[in-house]
Amino acid sequence: MRLKVLGLNYKTAPINVRENFSVSKESIRRGLENLDEYDGLNEAVILSTCNRTEIYAVTSNDCENAAKIFLKDLIGGDVENYLYEYEGENCVRHLFEVSASLDSLILGEGQILSQVKDAYTTAKNIGATSTILNTLFHRAIAVGKNVRTETKIAYNSVSVSSAAVELAEEKLNGLKDKTALIFGAGKMAMLTAQHLKSHGVKKIFVANHHIERAEEMAEKIGGEAVEWEDALLNAVDVDIIITSTGAPHYVIKTWQTQKLMTRRAGRGIFFIDIAVPRDVEPEVGKIHGVTLYNIDDLEAVVQSHIKAREIEAESARKIVEIEVSAIMERFKYLKFQPLMADLSNRAEKIRERELKRFSAKLPNLTEEEHRVLEQMTRKIVRKLLRLPMMKLNSSAGTNEENFYAAAMQALFKD
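^ that's the sequence the OP posted. Answer follows.
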């Protein structure tokens, strides 16, 4: 068995690549439901966020490309030039660092842990995980929690939404008395609105395809819901537009923005697009008076905060390394569990069969005598299996493990 991760993230692929290979929740479900169609792909979890798309997989030794084929089919294209791949211990370390937000664009951000949980829960509910990935993801989630509890890496941490607001504040020389329009009413949009409020924004408009969701969010933040179709063209007096929808296509087009700028009579406007795939057509940024930033442009804001958390990150990495060593030690023995269970089951079936045959020849056995025989035969089986089981376990992680596993299978095979 091979444990591996394949993926691309903000380090290996720019946003124009990532948005083309972002995978919807429905596509992930459909892909995992058809996992059996891929020979040698035994377990899988798909993690897809605005900054990464990854598959964590357990494959058979003779099917090392199964995970790559599955991923290519899932995302509908060839991302060979952007992929990273880690196996075994390096795969474990990578997932633990992801869960601990050590591999995030924004060090210490809190959203990734819930995204890891959701990815695992989806795969588990579909039946795409088993012993290896169940063990790995349970531990990864615990590691993420431990890092946040035992370090201050998340203390005053920057999120994508807060970084976007900081960027706007810097470029506009403050946000006091400014007016903002937010496209989207999800979790990220809500966090963005809260940050805007805390930085002094006077008025916030919320646009969403489902007006009731826009109204619900607007009520929570003291803003105003607006109809999706009219939102942009009516943004004549808006200073900032932030987009955070889950749309698979551009929701703000160049021609719409040109109309808006004509109505604004030369007054500039500030766009921040924090969605992946992007919400705003890149050509919008070329329109006179428009300033457009996307999620990759937040890195300067992130870097200004990162030094303050580097010490905490080092503490977090020490926690990760301890946890990696612990789970790798556990994985040494996990691979033998199916074999040892098989041997135990075979021995137990033989014991039960022979005891039944023997008991038929002694119909006058009392209940107590039958109980003694039952106990005695169980002890005999355990003692016979004890030495080979110990030998098999002690070979885990050594050059002899394959030899002993093969020998056990050959000796006890029907």
